[in-house]
Structures are given as structure tokens and as C-alpha cells.
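Need residues for this backbone.
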């Protein structure tokens, strides 16, 4: 697995998050006022099929899974 910055996340990518594999449905870069930016993502768990919303910090690194 390789690490990518959260700002490089795109729909269709598969990542490992909290020990599970997720595919990304949507990504929205949010920068509220004078606060730090974040990446609001909607992801589907590949094992259970559950959909979750998760907010990554813009400077955070995420493990990308190569299938």
C-alpha cells in the first residue's frame, strides 16, 4: 500500500481506513472561513457494504490499497 494525501483522494479509489477496505464515492474539499481545510468523504465498506461519511484533515495521509 502507498500513502497519499487526503487532498489527492478521488471517487473510485480504494483506501484502507481503520483496518477495513473502503471505496470512495464522493469527495468534497471544505475550507470554512479562517479554519483549516478538510476533505469530506462518503465511502462504502467493501466487506459489509455499509456507507459512512468521514472527514479527513487536508494534510493527513491515507493508505491507498492496490487491488
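Answer:
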Amino acid at each position: 500500500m502507498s500513502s497519499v494525501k487526503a487532498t489527492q483522494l478521488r471517487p473510485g479509489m480504494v483506501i484502507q481506513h481503520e483496518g477495513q477496505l473502503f471505496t470512495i464515492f464522493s469527495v468534497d474539499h471544505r475550507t470554512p472561513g479562517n479554519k483549516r481545510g478538510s476533505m469530506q468523504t462518503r465511502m462504502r465498506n467493501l466487506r459489509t457494504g455499509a456507507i459512512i461519511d468521514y472527514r479527513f484533515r487536508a494534510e493527513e495521509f491515507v493508505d491507498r490499497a492496490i487491488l
